[in-house]
Amino acid sequence: MTTTTPEAAIADARERIDALDDRIIGLIQERMAVSAVVQQTRIASGGRRVHLSREMEILARYRDALGKPGTGLAMTLLELCRGRV
Question: Where's the Chorismate mutase domain (predicted)?
Answer without folding.
Answer: 4-85
